[in-house]
What we know:
Elements: E1 6-15, H1 21-30, E2 35-39, H2 45-50, H3 52-69, H4 84-108, E3 112-115, E4 117-122, E5 125-129, E6 137-147, E7 151-153, E8 166-167, H5 169-174, E9 181-185, H6 189-200, E10 204-209, H7 220-232, E11 236-239, E12 242-248, E13 254-259, E14 265-270, E15 272-275, E16 279-281, E17 314-316, H8 327-341, E18 355-357, E19 362-367, H9 370-375, E20 380-386, H10 391-396, E21 402-408, E22 414-421, H11 424-437, H12 441-446, H13 456-465
Parallel strand pairs: 1-2, 1-6, 2-3, 6-17, 8-15, 9-10, 9-15, 10-11
Antiparallel strand pairs: 4-5, 5-6, 7-16, 12-13, 13-14, 18-19, 19-22, 20-21, 21-22
Helix pairs in contact: 1-8, 3-4, 3-6
Amino acid sequence: xxxxxxxxxxxxxxxxxxxxxxxxxxxxxxxxxxxxxxxxxxxxxxxxxxxxxxxxxxxxxxxxxxxxxxxxxxxxxxxxxxxxxxxxxxxxxxxxxxxxxxxxxxxxxxxxxxxxxxxxxxxxxxxxxxxxxxxxxxxxxxxxxxxxxxxxxxxxxxxxxxxxxxxxxxxxxxxxxxxxxxxxxxxxxxxxxxxxxxxxxxxxxxxxxxxxxxxxxxxxxxxxxxxxxxxxxxxxxxxxxxxxxxxxxxxxxxxxxxxxxxxxxxxxxxxxxxxxxxxxxxxxxxxxxxxxxxxxxxxxxxxxxxxxxxxxxxxxxxxxxxxxxxxxxxxxxxxxxxxxxxxxxxxxxxxxxxxxxxxxxxxxxxxxxxxxxxxxxxxxxxxxxxxxxxxxxxxxxxxxxxxxxxxxxxxxxxxxxxxxxxxxxxxxxxxxxxxxxxxxxxxxxxxxxxxxxxxxxxxxxxxxxxxxxxxxxxx
Length: 475
């Protein structure tokens, strides 16, 4: 403790108020534990403030504008005008409402909220530096701790985020105007979500990706549908190229320079450059080594299936503990951490954690692919239902994609699912529930689904795997 410190104590110290941290804090408080949550920025973390929520708001807004302007085949004729500033203002309102709700939920559950930046002094003490002149600091002694400090965008050499024309994903979500030409470095889920969003808003989008395709490691037929749709929206792809540098152009814009492994160079004219090559854990200033916490060579805190670090009473959840770097996974881990601390028999079951990509069309996956099932020793059976055979999909005008179920042929147990198409992020929940409950193909097929709905495609995929599909040809 330094001179001027205030010394306090708590049973559970949670560092970071994102979807892993605030959930852990609330559940710990519900378990009757004295809980303190330290957050240095904004409650809700990157997800609510700079990621999941604001991106889906802009995806919805851009999609609505694009739908209205491209529905002549339905007899709808419109030429919508997008006020980007107003759209961002609306998005910010959604974010503010949700982040304010997180703070209220924490307080209502008895969580002690402390603004500031926490760092470990030793394995039972953390120092919290409060922001603002004269705010000072305090030392907090804890019995248990949960690290939930999240992640931030990876910066690549030569592309300083301090430059106005070099964007992080957060910058792309806060822009009050649409650039005429947007260069995107990286074809992962963040790059692809924002590529389709800005293409719908009228930007000429160019994506450069070092790999040979987008959205690694999704299956080829899933990626192909998303890539084809992006190309229809005007997105231009250049694979096998890495961004090397940028330079100013004579027209007042910029040049994005790329290079292949063979040394071939290319140049693309852009007005903004979005760098979306992945995310890295936030641990600087945390001083985890002071508490004996181990990190891997990329800086992630290593944990077991009960979210414990190398120091049993210190847990790590969310992005800072590595894959899967998903908000809902972080929340699940936060609940497990709190319950383990409270003495409950909780542990993680990664098999049934779904993932979604909010491109056009959407992707939803959970569990095993056919190849993964084979590698795990199963004899898989696969069923598929194309959306172009779905009556409800036809009435929406979106018939790209399919629902695919993977099951064990001997027992019928559902092992996984891959969905690409309209509302895939919603539909995948049924498959996740089937895996979690140990449901069989027969269980899914025998569940009466409302007609006409997109969810019927899940039922039909189950029937197809059993050779009994009615509305698509059996394999």
